[in-house]
Design goal:
Blueprint lengths: L2 H11 L6 E5 L3 H12 L7 E5 L63 H15 L5 E2 L2 E9 L4 E8 L4 E7 L1 E4 L4 E4 L7 H7 L4 E3 L13 E5 L3 H10 L5 E5 L25 E3 L2 E5 L11 E4 L4 E3 L3 E4 L3 E3 L21 E2 L2 E3 L1 E2 L3 E2 L5 E3 L8 H25 L3 H7 L2 H4 L7 E3 L8 H16 L18 H11 L9
Parallel strand pairs: 1-2, 1-7, 2-3, 7-22, 9-16, 10-11, 10-16, 11-12
Antiparallel strand pairs: 4-5, 5-6, 8-17, 13-14, 14-15, 18-19, 19-23, 20-21
Helix pairs in contact: 2-3, 2-6, 6-7, 6-9, 7-9
Length: 480
Amino acid sequence: MTEINSTKQVLSKYPSKINKVLVIGFGAAGILVLRNLKKINKNNQINVKCFELTSRLGGIWNLDTLTTDHTNYSDITGNKFVTPLYPSLTTNIPGKLMTINDLPDLGSDDVYPHYKFVLNYLENIVKLDNLDQLVSYNTKVNEVEYLIDEKCWLVKSLNLKTNETVEEKFDCVVDCSSFNNLDRIPNWEGLQEFKEKYPGKLMHSRYYRGVEEFNGKTVIVVGKGPSAMNIVQELSYTNCNIIQSSNPIPIIKLGERFLPHAPNNPENLPTFVTPIKSFEIDSNTSETKNDYIILEDGTKLPIPDFVISATGYEFKSVTLPETSTNPLQPSTENTIVDKQTVKNLVLRMIYQHNPTYMTIGSITISTLIPLWDYQAHYAASMISIVNYFHSTKDSTPLLELVGEDWILKPGEDELIISRAVMNERFSYPIELSVRINKSHAALPAKYKDEFPLAIVDPPSNNWIEQAVIYSLGLPPYNRD
């Protein structure tokens, strides 16, 4: 491909200089993106803003106090986002694996620190870099729409304090608003009848806030992931009758298969049963003697006091339409989210049909904060190098950063990938780091100060070693 044609192709993806950037969300990912944007914006040539739904920083690392009414489910698509924290929660992964390269101290010597140390860590980053000045709190992004003629994004937001709707244009959007937004409760047969006859008995683990309301009750916990195992562990130290419903549970923690942080109370071990198949509910009477939970092996269980569904979350973009009359998505097939899958994302973060939309955090892996930091370095570097391209029409550093194939060879099969990067926990951040450094090397020396990149080293050998030990469930990270 000739240099002229290459420039045309790059211009088709990056049609204008990036002078104004919106970061959606001020949780861990948003904090890291803003931090890296400040690194490449020392001359303040880029106008950076952040819209945060809540009145506080930190995203899911905040504790929400709830009532015991679990019938009114909510999610981030509404005006209030309920975090899944409870007062005694500790991290699911070692604290030393949750920090970023240049700020390695979480402030706790515990192997699995209390969640407050993570929140304090994020608060310290914000104070250190004075990031608060860039944030508009209590601001809900309702829609992001690309204006083809103006080559920019129209963002429609709602001020939750004044109820004022605002429209504003941006050259680039970095979405850090999280995708684990919708409570996932299996669509069991008879579920609706159960909820109608037994209001308040079913709750998602997002709303668990401690053992107090379950003391002396019969509780079925559905699931075997971290939330389920931790809740069962806590309940075992009360006089609850605990039943855990799931597929077979591994005896030993290996890799990402979690057991509780501490052994279950040997004097109150849960009864393990097979997964729930359906609810058998007699809706014609208020009597309960003929109502049962049916398990996959045919066992019938009487209706318990509570069912806690620790069954995870569905994947949803808050700001992007799911079907496309919107120019963001050229056809209805070119969506980004599909419950448990991400689509059309290059390097798991760049929307291939319009790469001035990026998303941080549309993946699952245990070491999220350091991984998001690599994505944040990459996003900031891309914005800077796009501006270099528009100033010089030299596409070499940009192509070193983003790769050539998806830009210079459009029309290839759409990118559909699993959200999990368990097999790439080391190769993925290394790749992002190498791309940034290659782009920096290709940038002529006289432009390095004007268009700086957010340089970052690959994960250290010690970090990789500790992560491998943790993945194998070896001391000091074993929990059994």
